[in-house]
Structure formats: structure tokens, C-alpha cells
Input
Amino acid sequence: MWRFFHKLGSPKHFYRIAGAWIPWLALFCAGFMLVGLYLGLWVAPPDYQQGESYRIMYVHVPAAWMSLFIYVVMAGAGAIGLIWHMKLAEVMAISSAHIGASFTFLALVTGSIWGKPMWGTWWVWDARLTSELILLFLYLGVIALHNAVEDKRTAARATSILAIVGVVNIPIIHYSVEWWNTLHQGPTVTKFDAPSIDVRMLIPLLLMAVAFKLFYAVVVLMRARCEILQRERNTQWVRQLAGES
Amino acid sequence: MKTRSTSRAFTLLLRRDLTLAFRQRAEMINPLLFFVLVTALFPLGIGADPGLLRSIGPGIIWVAALLAAMLSLDSVFRSDFEDGSLEHFLLSAHPLSILVLAKTLAHWLITGLPLLIVAPLLGLLLDLSADAVWTLILTLALGTPVLSMVGAIGVALTVGLRRGGMILSLLVLPLYVPVLIFAANAVETASAGLPITAHLSLLTALLALACSLSPVATAAALKISLS
Amino acid sequence: MTTAEFFHMGGYAFYVWTSYGLTLIVLLANVLSPLRQRRKILADLARRERRERKLK
Output
């Protein structure tokens, strides 16, 4: 069992094992997503206040949750890579960055689209949207720094530091923006954090959240495999792999 | 014996940086002029209605302070990187975070402290009340060191890059947001005559956090950039 | 809910379906990007192998 984890640390075995896992994870992801979408879009009743527009929640909220989750994973993997000099942790960290940024972008755009019928405008300086915007900049900073440094190992270590500094700042930024927002917006009724959500609406939401997590797992493994091919391109096993294709 | 020599190294490095900076006094004026100029541009852009200026004045001044801090950040490690002394710091027996703290303190004394001195003039330009100006000076005193210290992390990450200056802003400005929010709001609240103990506590907390953690992060970033 | 109601979404059809459409695009992009990258990397490596074999 421990040998399995030990093997996972080697890029060559990780490439193979991840390759085997991807189809299964994708299958489960598709399953959860189809059931979640069916329950969310077809079965769940319309909201008494927002009508049918609340259904955007089923993609907006999971996307927002993922944007935060992925940043924490990225910072954690970066920290592990820095402390224990694990190549694979560095690979996982940088593979997560683009995915996290895309989810943050999705959360912002769907949040904005949801805001139009809710608040009447395309953009409001709502605490959550503003924090998401700053999170997007944090992600873009990580990606920009990674692209600016030429050596892959130095790039990974530098972006790990940035990600760790960012993750410490996220609660501070979020708190400060929320505080700022309550001063300037007054009591805005945000349906995002309705205390009592109907269970028929909650189940599809949780299913979609799981589906998005599984999706992240699939895509991060795909990206990690690409990154490994790049880093290990001078080794025997990669040459063999390239020769076969 | 080692502790004493580390604190001696700290003071020596601080004095060295200050002396070097004072030899190029013109360079010291630039961020200051930028600060005043940017603040002066806003009334030209949005109209000189005193009520309007008074209400957005604190925000303008603080954004200008952020931008001035950003512009001046490059000088923290640039000259030492170019002539190789930065590598000497990495190799020295003293903890790098202490040396970094000395350099960051010097940077703040050169670029941050002058902003405090000029703040009353800007208060005049934007028609701020006396209360507001005092609070402004106080928030600048608490906030600009945070800007220098957090900025130093960004500079350390980008010092080895060719076009590091461009992405420095992208890296550092999101981290500056809490300081901006609490400081600008403190000045506004003070103008309205309300107590600002909460704001000042939060700013002091940010300062404490920056003082304790950012030298460590900056040192780690320097070691990586120069590897 | 009927099929007509499903597509109409209580008048909010534009907002709901644009959001889901964008979600689909983002998810697809996230899947296609590594696929394309992998194909490109392997092709580049194969080309390099052939070049080196010719030199030997």
C-alpha cells in the first residue's frame, strides 16, 4: 500500500497510473453531472422570489467553490514541493493554476449574468464578486510569473512562494472586501447565502459540486501528464513513448 | 556574540542603503513628485467641486500612495542584484530575513516616510478637513510600511527577470487591497467624526503580520530567484 | 416541468442558457487544451527522435 504511494511520487509511474484513473474519474464526473443537471434544471421547483433564474446557481456556486478549493490545493502542493523538493508536487501546483483561473472566470461571468435579473446591472461591487475578481488577479499573477521564469524548477518554486503568500492573503482580502461592501452597499439581500435552502434545490447543488470536483481531478491529471512529458523529455521512458506514437 | 553582530549587520546595512540613497537625492524626489502629480490630476479629470473632492479625496490619495509605492519598489534590490552584492547577502552568516528587513526599512524611510510629510499638502489640494488630514497621516504611517514589506516579496520574486517590472504590479496590487480598503475608509470615517479604533486596530494587525512574515517570504523568494 | 417551460425558463431563458453555455465552453476548453498539448508534445518528441536517429 505504501509502495503504491511511493510509486506515485515517481513521474514515470504517476504518468501511467494517472492515465489509468482518468477514464474512470471522467465516467463518474459525467454521471454526477448528468444527474445533477437533470435534478437541478428539470425536477427542482422554481424559487418563489427569483423564479427560474436561480438555476444559474447550479453552475455559479460550484465554480466559485472550485476557484477557492483549487487555489488552496495549488498553494498546498506548492508548499509540499518547496519543503520536500517533490517534482510531482510542483507539477500538480502549476497544472492547477490555469484550471483554477478558468473556474474563477466562470464564477465571475455567471455571477454577473445572474446579477442582471437580480440587481438590474451587469456588474455590482458585491463582496463576493469583488473578492472573486481579486482572486482572478492572484491566479493570473501566478500564471504570469510562471511564464516569465525560464527554468521550470525555478519557476515552480517561485510560483509556490507566490501561491502561499496569496493563500494567506485570501481570507484577509475576503474579509476586508466584505466589510467594505457592508459599508457601501447597505443590507443587500443576496440569495447566495440564503440560510434555509430547500432540500430539492440543495441535492442538485451538492451533486454539481461533486461533479465539478471530479472534473477538476480529471483535467488536472491530464495537464499533469503533459507537464511530466515536458519535464522528463530527455529520459528513456519518454523517448520510448514518443517513438511508439 | 552572534546576536550582537547580526544587529550590527542590520544597522550597517540600513546606514549603507540610506547613505547610497542620499547621494542621489534627485532619485528620492521622483516617487514623491509622482504622488503629488497623480493626486493633482484627479480634480482636473473629474471636476473641482469641493464636496466631491472631499468625499473621494482619501481614496484618491491612497491609490496614489499605492502607485507611488509600486513605482519605487524596483529600487529595493535592483542595484544590489546588478553589482552582485545581493549574492553576498545570501552567502553571509547572518539570517537573510534580518538583512531583508534592513533593506525594506531603508526603502520605507526613503520612499514611504516622505509621503507622510507631503500628505497635508495633498489634503489642502483636495479640501480635506483637519481631522481627515491627521487620520491620513496616521494611516499612511501604519500602511506604507506594509506596502514596502509586501512589495519586497514581489520584487524578490521578479528581481531576476528581464521584464520583471511589468508583472510586479500584477503580483503585488491584489495583496495591497486590504490596506487600501481599511486606510481609505478610516479617513472617510474620521471626516464624518466617527471613531476609527477598529480601522486602526486592523491596520496595526496588518502591519504586525507583514513585519513578522514578509521578511521570511522575501528571503525565501530571493534564494529562489538567485539560484 | 414541460419541455416548453424548460427552454423558456420563466422568461429568464437568455440568462440561464447563456450561463450554462459558457460553463460548457469553459469545461470543454479545459479538456481540449491538455489533449492538444499532449498530441503536440509527443509529435515534437517523435520529430526529435527521427532527427537524432538520422544523425547517428
Summary: Helices of chain C lie at 3-8, 13-55. Chain C has a mean pLDDT of 89. Chains C and B do not touch (no CB pair under 8 Å).
